[in-house]
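SEVERITY: medium
COMPONENT: batch folding queue
REPORTER: lab tech (J.R.)

DESCRIPTION
The queue accepted two submissions in a row. Attaching both inputs and their returned structure tokens so the on-call engineer can compare them side by side.

ATTACHMENT 1
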Amino acid sequence: MNSEFQQQQEIRFVTSKDGTRIATATIGRGPIIVRAAHWLTHVSRDPESPIWRHWIAEMSAQNRLVRYDLRGCGLSARDVCDISFEAWLADLEAVTQQINEPFTLIGMSQGAALSIAYALRHPEKVERLILIGGYVQGIRARASEAQHIIEADTLTNLIRLGWGSDLNAFNEVFTNLFIPDGTDEQCAWWQNLERETASPETAALTFEVLQQIDVSDLAPKVNVPTLVLHARNDARVPFEEGQRLAACIPDAQFVPLESANHVLLQDEPAWKTLMASVRAFLPPRLASRPSVGEIALTPAERAVLGMVAKGLGNSDIAANQNKSEKTVRNQVSILFEKFGVHSRAELIVRVLSDP
């Protein structure tokens, strides 16, 4: 499943205004969705991760998904002099420069503020905004008490001391901010990604910049349809900040998510809520597709679909159904066509996430 994803995505590099090389990845076909960069991604590793693969599969099932790594992170240039909000905005401009049709822009976490700034600078490019776990102001920009400053300083120092290391205290604190309900596998992946995606100093500098984000003067000027989603018990960005973000943007829709995770995991009910909300929000040409129960399948196809959804390969399915691998391979290809997907990964997510 993961190798198919890796083969399908196309990784390229673009050059930002200051010469920094930014790694991009595209996957899927159809109207374009661009995901603004945020923390803890690695375009070459994300398709195999238990944190991001369901996001990629679902967002690319009916669309062409474009994502990229932050400067200093992942496959993007690591040795960079300028880590700032303006530099991040210039990187997003470089990534989207060759896109000649309006697209949906998704901003997660600090990517929400970045998406707002981009939408105002390039109104001809952005068709809709989807903002997930975002905020108008970073913790330093909104700090009203000394306690907030202490919290920000503590987290920055923890990053410099424990980023990507085996320090259990750091890993427990930091991981719980993002995926408190994560499994052992998911938490281990998170820790490994820290090592692979950025140095401790780059991570600390990035964290310092996102703490100072302030788009409170820009958000009220947004004039495209906007969907805001936020987990009620998000420890990374308080739920109240999501509510404030939605209140600042004219006519924004707000959807609370019953979760404690800053990054929603595939098996939690909130993931289905998020995807159902996104499908309902997107224009009909992006959102319309039959539910799993509405797709006409033969009994043989339905049996194969059930085993694919359980993660079985063609050889195991063939043995179970007393068929040749060629027959199973053909039936899986028919399922791809009927469900409008391009890989087993997309098919599995399509079946499991159908509301």
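ATTACHMENT 2
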Amino acid sequence: MQFALPPRRSPHPLPGAHSTRLPLYRRKQLKTIAVFAVAILTLLYILSHFFSSSSTSITAPAGTAGVVIVTLLDRQSLSESYINKIVANREDYAKRHGYTNFFASASDYEEAVGDAPQSWALIPAVRHAMATHPKSKYFFHLSPHALIMNPSISLKSHLLDRSRLESLMLKDYPIVPPDSIIKTFALKEKDIDLIITQDSDDLNPSSFVLKNGDFARFFLDLWFDPLYRSYKFAKAETHGLDHIMQWHPTVLARTALVPQRVLNAYSKDSSGASPDGSYKDGDLVIRFPACDEGKSGDCDELDPYYAMWWKKVKGT
């Protein structure tokens, strides 16, 4: 008996017939193109999400301070009486305006800073404050060698209000004095995440305001990069910041530079102030740069101004 064999496929297609399958190499090409397209679209989505979210305001819910004042204290070198003065100054201001204080200890960040100068600790201190108060909108870093001298004015009315900030910012201005070819942008308040001043030599991070958000975390991580900390900058984190502002337009494009006296006036006995950067009565802050290099644990230059501040507090 013979069994019928199944019909065999002819190796030659019938006239008029066309294969519906793409050649193997063509399918591989299309697959590669599809993978690259998905990767590019994903990258564009991430970048658009980053820049849109960085400018999105964080609104502090009821019962949460909109401003956190960050003060880094070296409790191993500063005297207890001096620390008490700084704490009293910050607590009075915070209580008046519903702000929150974050007092950080420099010793808590020794491991993170490593072999770099300990002045770098201000960066993880601000990052720590943001992690502790994630719903707060602004973080105001202020040197322990500075006093808030005008307790009656809020940070909002003095600096953060839209029209006020846009009128104060220095536009098309050398980012590093006196004649850096890199200059500030003309920005709108909604696009600003970092507010800072400069003295006669550099940008000065002893007093700055940082808006909470993705950009703030990116900026602090970039600034604290081990490469910058290991580089022998003469002024450590200050020169690291100068470098970032001049070489990273992504950061500069979200930074407002304001006159020194707005946020960081130097005492009249301090050198290095910018033109019109020395303290005048009515300024929000006075800072004592020479005390950064002091070895006594106190800052004698602060005492007469502390007495003036205390008199204002008692009178209000």
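NOTES FROM REPORTER
The chain has one domain: 76-314.
No errors were logged for either attachment.
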